TrEMBL record:
One of its GO terms (biological process) is xenobiotic detoxification by transmembrane export across the plasma membrane. One of its GO terms (cellular component) is plasma membrane. Belongs to the major facilitator superfamily. Bcr/CmlA family. Residues 9-393 form the Major facilitator superfamily (MFS) profile domain. CDD domains: MFS_MdfA_MDR_like. GO terms for molecular function: sodium:proton antiporter activity; xenobiotic transmembrane transporter activity. It comes from Fulvivirga sediminis. This is Multidrug effflux MFS transporter. It comes from the Bacteria. Signal peptide: none annotated. It is a multi-pass membrane protein. Keywords: Cell membrane, Membrane, Transmembrane, Transmembrane helix, Transport. The chain crosses the membrane at residues 45-64, 76-94, 100-121, 133-157, 163-183, 213-231, 251-271, 369-388. InterPro entries: Efflux_drug-R_Bcr/CmlA, MFS, MFS_dom, MFS_trans_sf.
Length: 407
């Protein structure tokens, strides 16, 4: 593979992976306008985020077997087409309930890009190179939160929130064309795989039964759900509590997104000297410490807006370090069922993300506490699962050594 081919491949896979980040981030500055136009409240508009995460979670479970059965590209094309149609539906909705439903359909379509991109990384790169490939994907993905809210803020201010969804549909149509002409096939269709419910459930159970998958999928899933709490609560925190404008909020979001960009590049360097597990554990550990500082600062009234932005910046660097390593460790045991494994990993992450955004909405009390508290709990939960998993592995290893000596 030449450097130009490698660049084009990473770019297209990254664009496929950015569909959901753009869909999540780009309309955030429009929350107050959406609530006003649809005669609703911000906490109800936040549920459109929750429905999007639920749609991604369910959609990935659907696409996993389809990508293994029919190859990577055909299900991808269908999913992206559904997304384009649903985006138009979101733009012309006239109630918050309709918006919540159309966001669900939009997510079911758009998540095809995420699952296909992850499976293609596993198809096209050797196991020892997947973490680096995921880091580059996360770099492309991390750029989207810098662009999406800022662009969304200007669009909402100039053309209204409806324009955001029309632009999302147009961007995805462009990505669909690029994937059609320039994306490699990856793993070919496997007609031996059954799509009957019993066979699909069995395939997912086989993946979930792998101990390495279970530990890193849930540890990484819970820890990487923390930014979803930030996404769900940040527009309310900055635009209603700190009274910044749509444009100012877009720039704040962009600055904080830079935390993930820098850390993904740092991760690329660290992996030359440390293992995936070592980097991941350290990243989640300092997220726990930062989360405790944010919660304490809010509870005791010690955090100004700028102090909060600084702590959020530090916290979010951990996402750029833990996310690609968790993905690589989760998918490492799989080759034949990479599509199903990728889908199940994504479903777990987005399902947890949906719960997290719903929790921020339920705990909404007009303060910053729900957002930072849920972020801290996510990091702590991920670290606990990682520690418990490591202890179980060490115990099993000791038992095997003991059995070998006794024989």
């Amino acid at each position: 593979m030449t450097k130009s081919q490698y660049f084009i491949l990473i770019l297209i896979l990254g664009l496929l992976s950015t569909i959901s980040p753009f869909s999540i981030d780009m309309y955030l500055p429009g929350f107050p306008s959406i609530a006003k136009d649809l005669n609703s409240t911000i906490d109800k508009v936040q549920l459109s985020l929750t429905s999007y995460f639920i749609g991604i979670s369910l959609g990935q479970l659907l696409y996993g077997p389809l990508l293994d059965r029919f190859g990577r590209k055909r299900p991808l094309y269908i999913g992206l087409l559904i997304y384009v149609i649903a985006s138009i539906g979101c733009a012309y909705t006239n109630s918050v309930e309709q918006l919540i439903f159309m966001r669900l359909i939009q997510a079911v379509g758009g998540c095809a890009g995420m699952v296909a991109a992850q499976a293609l990384v596993r198809d096209l790169f050797p196991v020892e190179k997947t973490a680096q490939a995921f880091s580059l994907l996360v770099l492309v993905i991390a750029i989207s939160p810098m662009i999406a809210p800022t662009l969304g803020g200007y669009m909402v201010a100039s053309y209204g929130w409806h324009s955001v969804f029309l632009v999302l549909g147009a961007i995805t149509a462009f990505i669909l064309v690029a994937a059609f002409f320039a994306l490699p096939e990856g793993q070919l269709a496997d007609r031996t795989l059954s799509l009957k419910p019993k066979a699909v459930v069995k395939a997912y159970w086989t993946v979930l039964s792998d101990k390495q998958f279970a530990v890193y999928a849930f540890a990484g899933g819970i820890a990487t759900s923390a930014p979803f709490a930030y996404i769900a609560g940040s527009s309310d925190v900055f635009m209603n509590i700190y009274q910044v404008t749509e444009k100012q909020y877009g720039w704040i979001f962009a600055i904080l997104a830079f935390a993930m960009i820098g850390s993904t590049q740092l991760n690329h360097i660290l992996l030359k000297y440390y293992s995936n597990k070592q980097v991941m554990k350290v990243a989640i550990s300092y997220q726990v410490v930062t989360g405790v500082l944010m919660v304490g600062g809010v509870m005791f009234g010690m955090l100004s807006m700028y102090a909060l932005i600084g702590l959020l910046f530090i916290f979010l660097t951990g996402h750029g370090l833990s996310n690609p390593n968790a993905s690589a460790l989760t998918l490492a045991p799989f080759s034949k069922n990479a599509g199903s494994a990728s889908a199940l990993m994504g479903a777990i992450r987005m399902g947890l993300g949906g719960l997290v955004t719903a929790l921020v909405s339920v705990l909404h009390n007009g303060t910053t506490l729900p957002m930072v508290l849920v972020m801290a709990l996510c990091a702590a939960g991920g670290l606990i699962i990682l520690q418990v998993g490591d202890r179980k592995k060490r115990r099993i290893k000791r038992e095997k050594l003991s059995d070998s000596y006794s024989q």
